[in-house]
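Supplementary Data S3. Sequence and structure tokens for construct A.
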Amino acid sequence: MYDYLRPIRPGLRPPRRSVDLHIIPIVSLIYSFALIDRINLGAARTAGMGPALHLEIGERFSIATVMYFIPYILLQIPGNLVIRKFGARNYLTFCVTCWGAVQLAMGFVKTWGYLTFCRVLLGLFEASFFPAIVYMISSWYTRYEVQKRLAFFYLMSLTISGFSPILAYVFSLLNGKRNIAGWSWIFIIEGSVTLFLGVVAFFLVPDFPELNTFLSPDQTKFVLQRVEEDRGDSVPDQLTVRKLLYHLGDWTLWAYGLMFMCCTLPAYALAYFISIILKGLGWSTTAALLLSAPPYAPAFFSAVFFAWLSDKTRHRAGFIVIQGLISITGLCLTAFSPQNSVRYLGIFLLNAGSSGCIPSILAYSANNVVGSSKRSISSAITVAFGGVGGIIASTVYREQDFPRYLPGLWVTLGAQFLLLFLVGVLSLYFTRMNRLSREGKLAGPLEGQPGFFYTL
């Protein structure tokens, strides 16, 4: 345990840049391939996997898509409970290597049943990665530094993965090489890259602050002391069954999860169906794959701008509302405009709004919990509900609704209004609790931490 009372070497500055460079680029690169491996099913189908595995029969494609999310949701909390026991580097390396192997194996499946089985395994091994990274990143930074980092992490990953359709098109050009279909090459090459990143992860992925090896002892203590002064949870508390049940009884954690579900639903819908929708609008297979990438570029700049503004103003809810309204605007254009060019513009707006909401909600939840154990449970619940958004996206965009998918777009639109409602409820609750705490009308400090107030 670090001695917070012993003075730190005079003139020592917070090592934020060093921490940023050691954490954000490598986890962003790895997670980008988690996203690519998760969402390349639509591109592979467009490139010929559909007829090869008879995915057009009934709801086979939706079933293969949705089965990924069953283990993905169920293993969120267990994964976050054991990461400190095994160490972030060891645990995350194991996960990356395993899902890379599964992704490579998908290139050799002969039936849609084996494809679905591989999707289940993929969900099993990817389940813990995202909540573990969110948990780890939030443990390094103070409350009003974290959204910019989460935004850069997520959006760098999303931007890289946004080129997945282009990569899929390039890899599909290998069709017939070594008697392997083009869609199979997509899985084989991308799985091989993920396996390589698993090796890289063992050497480069950092650990939690108190276990890191790239900072000096004084720098490490400085990081921990800043976190301790900000929210009082730099030293991890032991998670017991009683604590687990107590944390699960906090309704705000489930509200964050529902909000996350609402903003991931359009993200998954675009990931799985954008190339299919574009092809249905009349573009060729090549054009549909190539036009799937551009909507991801503006989303990066939009979300980073809102993250910077949110950290600067120390405010979260209002910016979530603004980005939710951007998503609603994009959905309305995509669903109801008769012109394909306007519908394509709507996809840009939808992607910008939903992509920006994701790090915003992660930061909102991270700012309003105290304690390492509660933080791990909160991030796991939040990301698990993101998987629920994936299930909804996989099932409401039905084969019989091709090419416009209006019922799916209506469901996605309703989710955005639910998001705005939940933000309003939480804002009213946090405002009231902060007021009662300042007036001394509560039995104890908020979240059990003296001086703590909820971030609005």
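Construct B, processed identically:
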Amino acid sequence: MPQITASYATSQPKKAAGSRASRTIAIWQSRQVLNLLVGRDLKVKYQSSLLGYAWSLLEPLALAGIYFFVFGLIFNTRALPEGVDAPGGYILYLIAGILPWMWFSTVLSDSTRSLMSQAKLITTMKVPREIFPLATVCTKGVEYLLTLPILALFALGSGGQWTWNLLYLPLAVVLQFVFLLGVALLLSSITVVLRDVQRIMRIVSRVLFYATPLLYPAHMLLESDRFPEWFKVVYEANPIVGIIELHHAVWFPMLVPPGPYLASTVVGTLLIFALGWWTFRRLEPAVLKEL
């Protein structure tokens, strides 16, 4: 902690966070603090671990293996679209969805305590408080990016199609980052005032796992007559659904979301970000009082 405080004091103007410049500029001026926070969190996670980086891969790969055994082998995959129905295609489908999902789920969990766990720094440093939930999103984002080489290896051996659809990957990553930043700002501020949010998010995370096209393509639900239309509308309105579908579309061109569906994902992502930013700013005085 002293290293972060000292580095900020020597590298940033004293009035960076309190100047008349916009909040965004203040955050940009504090980017070195952000880098130190992200570097510290990654170091703490991997330094004392025997397997280190491998842990970022073992959990999602283990989950993919379990779900492949249950849904790919026991229940078979004949109902899946061509290209995904083959065993190799389905395991790639699972991994391509579960890896970004780990980014989602860890941010949902860790952002609820991103302010409370940094109370001492927040009350002693003149830095925009948005830096702390932003650091959580960036740390987990770096962990996701470190898994991409493994995903590429699976794609090489599992029938993934290397086409121009690869360009969907940066779009999916950017949308996911913006969405998660909005969520982190929202949850981190609300949790300080209402501690029950941490427990609520554990349930929400489990529900979202099965309400997101990780084990099945979204069109299987949207084209089914077993679900009412209102449910399908709500399902499509969830930005996480569209973002995960973009991650899948990188390797499976037949799963590219239609234009209107993609547009609704972008709009939904921006709305969540705006809500998170607005809530954080409104609750900031109450948050500082609680901390």
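Residues 1-20 have pLDDT under 50 and may be disordered. Residues 84 and 146 are 25 Å apart (CA to CA).
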